[in-house]
Each structure stands twice: as structure tokens, then as C-alpha cells.
Please model this.
Amino acid sequence: MITGPTFEEMLHPHKIAPAVRERALKMREIDPLDPINLFNITWRDGNNEVYHFVLPKALTGVDANIVVIYGREFPSGSHKVGAAYSVLLEKELFGEVDPNVHTLVWPSTGNYGIGGAWVGCRMGCKSLVVLPAGMSQERFDRIHSYGADIIKTVGSESNVKEIYDETHRLRASSGDIRILNQFEVMGNYRFHYHVTGNTVVELAAELQRRGIGNGKIAAYVSAMGSAGTIAAGDRLKQVWPDHKIVGLEPIQCPTLYNNGYGAHDIQGIGDKHVTWIHNVWNMDAIMCLDDIECKQGLQVFAEEAGRAALVKRYGLDEGWVNWVCERLGISGICNILGAIKTAKYYGFGKDDTIVTVATDGMDRYPSVMESMAECYGRLDEASAVGRVERIFHGQRTDWISPGTPENRTRWHNLKYYTWVEQQGKSVEELDAQRDPAWWEQHQRMVSDIDARLLTVRETETA
Model:
């Protein structure tokens, strides 16, 4: 059984055995496919600094501090690898997965599948990723490079029902199939609640020491794909009860906003259902963003003329612009726009800090950016400035639904159609999620899982 870090070691990698940590950091550069890189699943670098950047107010157009934690430095290039690792680790520790027997199936619309391919194959498991055919070519290439197989289903980002249908077929085809469903399995929730959430808590104090913010996080903003990442907000609200958790959806597929449906191209979010692991009872607002604006906003960073305009017309540091563009993808721009929208909606000022997430980097989207250039043309200085003024500075406070008791009940009730009618959950299981104790029970399991892993380590070294 190949294992990696505990939850506590992912949160605080300095607690990893020094020899293991040193080797993991070394192999990160030499051989990213070595299993020792499991110990690089963390939001912190070799100097124990959190992967983050603070957006210039010249770009955001708001007084509030908008801070982005970014996942590009994780193994596989996205923080979703942390969720994939946590899900598989728990399944092994509880005896539900045997790497010598079972084939792992990772249902995904992109980054979780990439992370599952990386993790599964590093932990000695045969892995199969199920994802829509309409995702970027770079996603398919990377999954294959990690040693996993792929099944392509019909559609694009919002066609999760078709993914579920394929996983049902696979499960019925063999008793050796194990479905590691990010939309359902609470290991995904636990990784973000404990590791991402507590990382942001600690980052708040670090930012204050640097003169940024007042030592607390006013809001945490995240688009929902599996709704794993937004689980960090549950931890933040325990620390700061007046903290705001804001979820984001595409205007083209506004499922929670107005029971809507459709197709969109913010890869990694907006999967046309409310996931099992989403604690909607804690969400303070749902906001919708335009997928075209998100892609056009990314194009500003992707193209040389766009970056030049950010430097010349808005005074951004050229080195910072070139550095940060590699750490942004479509969903990252979506989250940034959502953070700007949040600042305007709640009236946050210069002492307030909003945290959001850049899930992956530009390396996932060259083909998408080329398609954007073919459709909308290459940017020049004037068009780049127009994009900044319209998309970033001009972000509106429309398409917002607050987390009233009625709306939270409606968001919860939407789970019925996917999870009870289609996926075999009971009404009693669904109703149990109304009680905060249900979520708190799953949060407390972190220490038990860590203890189980430490016991395995002791047994292996005995």
C-alpha cells in the first residue's frame, strides 16, 4: 500500500519527516511522477509559504484586498489532486479499495480526473477517467501522460448526468470496479475543509503582518464544480461567524440561481446539479458569471498585447504580470470576477480581505485561447483596455441570489433529483444534511483518518 501525507502534514508540510520532505522537494523538479511527490500535496512551498498572490487594485477596481491562492504548484498542476488523494487514501484505509484487485474510476470534467490519474497511478492503482468529450485537448493529453485510460462521454462541462450513466454501466460490468465520485465522497470535502480552510485561516494573519487586511477573511469566493473547494468556507465561518461564503455559477447554466440548465465553457465548474458534498446551508450568496467574459478576461493575460496593456496603461509590474499569467485558467478568472462582484455587493473596503482560488494554470488552455483568438481576434492595446474596463472594472452586481432560509432550503431540495431519484440515496440521508451535526461529524473524521494512516506507517516500519 503506497501512501502519502496525513491531513495535518498536507496543512503543515514542515511536520513531514525531514528526510522525506527534502526528497519530495528534490523529486518535484527531477521526476514529478515519482510517488514521493505525494508529499508535495500542500498549499505551501519549500519555505513554508502559502502559494498566493494579491491582486493589484488597478486591475480589480475595488478597495477590498482580493487574494488568490493558486493550485498550479500542486502535483499534476491543480489543487484537485489533493481531493483525489484524500478520497483514495480514505477508501484504502477503510478497506474499500485494494490496488492489487480494483480498477479505479474517476468521474470528472477535468482537473479531478487529471488528479485521479496522477494519484491513482502513483499509488499503484489501475485508473480510468470518465469525462466529457468537449473538454480541452490538454486535459486528455495529461491524463494519458500519467498512465490512466479515458472514456469520453457526450457533451461538455455541464453534462455530468452522462458521466454518471457511464459510471453506472462500468459498475455493473465488473465487481472489481470502484467509483471514486468527487461529487459524492466526503474525502473531497474533508481535504478542503481542513487543509484549504485552515491554510486560509493562517494566511489571514500572515497578510496582516504585511499590512494587508485586518487579520480576518471577510469572504471566501469559489465556483462550484464538485463543491469541494468551497468547503473551505465552512472552516472559515467557524473562525469568523460573520464571514461570507459565496458560490459562483455560469450565467449559461444557473442551476442554484434559478433551477436553470444549459451548456457553458468555464471548465471545472457549473455541473448542472447540486453535489452531495455541498453544504448549501452555510452559503451566503450565489452569483453568476458570464463564461465568455471569463474566457475573454483570461485572453488579456494569455496574449502579449494584453499583458503589455496591463503594464503600460494600469501600471502593473511586468514581471508580476508574466508570472501570474501562468497561474490563471478560465475558472481562476471566474473566481476573480466573482470576488470583485462580492466586494461591490457587500461594500467591502480597504481593511477587508476576500480570498478566492485559481484552480489550475494557463498550461491547460492553449487550445482554448487559440480558439478565442480565431473567434474574437487578437488583442491590441485598445481592445485589451476595453476588456479590463468592461470585464474587471465594470463587473456588475446583477445575477445574485442571497442565502436566505428559503433559498438555502431550495438549494438543498435540488439535491433530491440527482441523489435520491438517480443515485440511490435515501430521503432520510438527504434530510440528515439539514442538521449541522451531520457536517461536523464528517469534519471530526480528519483526526481519525490521520490516526489510521499513522498506524499503517508504524506497521510497515515495524
About this structure: The two ends are 15 Å apart (CA to CA). The chain has a mean pLDDT of 94. The longest helix spans residues 436-461. Residues 260 and 445 are 35 Å apart (CA to CA).
